[in-house]
């Protein structure tokens, strides 16, 4: 590629994407770019002499009328071929445009193009590493490039040309060290995309180059320099009156009375001298996040600090990227924020540096380039900043951080390690943002010596997450596999082994023998214990499904442990010895590397060996559950169970220790570490089950509950249609499935609104999706189905972008998805969301309730379902401008005696109509007419 090329930025529209000769070009557009300016534009419609599919017409807006009088590609081929000679071909997804164009040129008797090419998708991924999407429409919007007709070749080519100019400027501004790294990896990029970095490097090498002030070079890796914040004494009075808040919020927020009241209540509680627990029910649309964040920031000026915990890492990111910047604009004082989440979310710089020296495939090299640019931007090292929908590349497994315990103070990257930085930030933070899973595991350190305050947002999830994070598993077969893998590596006769390490004086022969002996001991005793456990507790007469799972009686399990205490203790001692050896090896490894006392082969062996040994040690941590001291302290809230997948070769036998209810757990283990604890959410209070959430959160029944008035006018904004003649799902499953399929088909045919359909199982989604496909609905409308058409993230993203789409979802789709305004107008609940009573945890919970003389259905199952219904309905109305209809296709909400209690889950002001299936169309038409 010449230093000053002419770029031909090309986009084509086609009748289809298959390159088998069955499709044709319907529009060709080329923008010529020279000397960083648009020099010329060539655009033409093309008559394909074939039908343009309906979906292509909808996507591009190109109709048969538009191409009827257009030239054939046969007549344009020569002009296009000549136009592109001597240029660099540029496209957004070059693999499609370049290859399709060549196919058509060859069909018309011309040779394939043999010109250089650049892919703007890959350049965008490298240079803009934190964007959630690299679709051209999104990039145009992000860069404020006018995109008048997305999916039209002329508009797309124009946007791509402007994108190219922006990206080339970004490359020019990269530090020389980063350009050198990109040039080393350039062969992994598509066509000649990597040559852009080489051209920029050549220009930069002619000038003196220094690392920019905001970056630092650590062992050849460029990182964002740590900013040292100087904290000044500040004193700002909390705005108690409406007038003071209106003045503070001017130009930033619309004043809302309920939000103002919430701020006052939160600040009042956080300012008390005692220790308070309170629930705050803040309906959707009230602005609850700022309703607690702003008073927390004011209260934290006293020097104590507040921990904010939310349900997921995604919500943490939302607080950090959207809420904190707005608060910094509003508030008249500075405040420090620290974010805490599991160490696995962060990049380990040392591990990443090692992967750069290893042989990698093209996809991994692209990802590494993206990460290298990201490291010059990120202040946190949090991998979720990359906004990937999946983190499935094996590279992530190699570079994820393993926590503070894996840090070595002598390591080159120790002082700039991101987890280490977070620990330092915590000491001076006014606000600490974490998630429920991290909170449950690290409550004592988050609370601190001064006992910070705690605000739990989306508090309805805390109990469930606490249970998930208090489950320990001993996987006997996994332990055996880990031991076997290590032994093969250590004793290999054909490749590098511990014997070779001894030859380089890294290990003595005695040390090598000790490591092998300890691993062998575990390797031999684990299978013996597995067989005994199987014979004692696995009842083969219960093998009725594909998965065996049974609860163990604690007294019988205790007896089994006593009988096999010798083997159990021997494994515990071996595990302890391996932990001690591992610590010694990591320190020695760092010293030997620093002094160049081992060769490259030994170094690579030790990286792998230490990683495998650490994996075994981590898996053995749960072995302590088998100690007599631990077993004697087992509370009645702990469930011990055994599981085994059936009819699978190499199935793993697992022993599980599970907390099955939060009573007597959350208060002593979490809340006791904080002064004030506030629980915030839009779905915390159930009028007909006032104590349900209090019990789930391990709170006293006299805990203060504060409810704020909602801002939505449900009488005008929404309507609920409860279908009375739907077949009873508990009586005839096949009849019910057929009914759901036909009813949804009818609703879809008569409504063009965006629609989400909620199910209780993926199996049912598959059946309904198949039905809609068979009846041709999927050809007329975009139907997105969880587990079928893509990942949850991809399904949601596509649903938000597409007009009149239909989403079939279960599980996570009942809550936590924000679809404001016309993003969701019709919500269908196909079945009441009762949980299965047959799971081990539910059986244990129900049994405990019934032993107390209470009814498990009314005390647990019904309130759980009401909470789920409340959360499901919450997807429909998100802003005061929203309008939408809820349809419930489960007649039990009307016909059963408990139906009246279930209906209290909906807002009191919501108009509810009991209808027959045939009346749905009329009611829907009437609602939208209004």
Name the descriptors.
930 residues; alpha/beta; Nucleotidyltransferase, domain 5; Rossmann fold; seven-stranded parallel sheet; 38 helices; 25 strands; 45% helix; helicase
Characterize the structure shown:
By secondary structure, this protein is of the alpha/beta class. It folds into four domains: 7-174 and 192-209, Ribonuclease H-like superfamily/Ribonuclease H (Nucleotidyltransferase, domain 5, 2-Layer Sandwich), CATH 3.30.420; 256-320 and 429-470 and 665-709, Rossmann fold (3-Layer(aba) Sandwich); 472-659, no CATH class; 714-929, Rossmann fold. The chain contains 38 helices and 25 strands. Helix 30 (733-749) packs across helix 31. The longest helix has 30 residues, at 565-594. The radius of gyration is 31 Å and the shape is globular. The model has no long low-confidence stretch (mean pLDDT 91). Its EC number is 3.1.-.-. A motif (DEAH box) lies at residues 457-460. ATP binds at residues 282-289. Keywords: ATP-binding, DNA replication, DNA-directed DNA polymerase, Exonuclease, Helicase, Hydrolase, Nuclease, Nucleotide-binding, Nucleotidyltransferase, Transferase.
Helix content: 40-55%
Instruction: Return the CATH topology of the largest domain.
Output: Rossmann fold
Q: How much strand?
A: 5-15%
| Residue-averaged pLDDT | 91
Total number of helices: 38
Shape: globular
Task: Count up the domains.
Answer: 4
**What is the rounded distance between the termini?**
62 Å
Q: Class by helix and strand content?
A: alpha/beta
Catalytic activity: ATP + H2O = ADP + phosphate + H(+)
Family: Belongs to the helicase family. DinG subfamily. Type 2 sub-subfamily.
Keywords: ATP-binding, DNA replication, DNA-directed DNA polymerase, Exonuclease, Helicase, Hydrolase, Nuclease, Nucleotide-binding, Nucleotidyltransferase, Transferase
Organism: Liquorilactobacillus oeni DSM 19972
